Amino acid sequence: MTLPFFVYGTLRPGARHHDRLLLGRTATEEDALLPGALLHDGPGYPYAALGAGTVRGSLVTPVPEAYGELLAVLDRMEYEAGYERAALDTVRTGDGATVRAWVYLAAPGTPRGPLIASGDWFSRAPDGPRTP
């Protein structure tokens, strides 16, 4: 199944893994929201889990020729960090459209840090925005 990815942490444009893993491999990147999820701080990266909240991130559509390789690279990185990949039908784009996308969620039993009430990992610091 070929789906775009909803990214909300270190893979978002401007964050540390974006350029290393996604730059040149995407056809589109746009701001998006994931309703029905909560965001938790983690050990240098966030964890999303299903719940009564909204997570802010980006919808990233890989170029077709890079899709298989990118999926393998992201799966390896994310599974090692305690995530599992899920296809969710609830990602909302800036124009209000709802799309199905891959989302890496905290796997059961993965320890999560404090809740990020804003749902936006880029603004997680209590005293204002932090750089990714």
TrEMBL record:
InterPro entries reported in the protein's UniProt record: AIG2-like_dom, GGCT-like, GGCT-like_sf
Gamma-glutamylcyclotransferase AIG2-like domain residues: 5-121
Coiled-coil residues: none
Protein name: Gamma-glutamylcyclotransferase
Species in which this protein is naturally found: Streptomyces hydrogenans
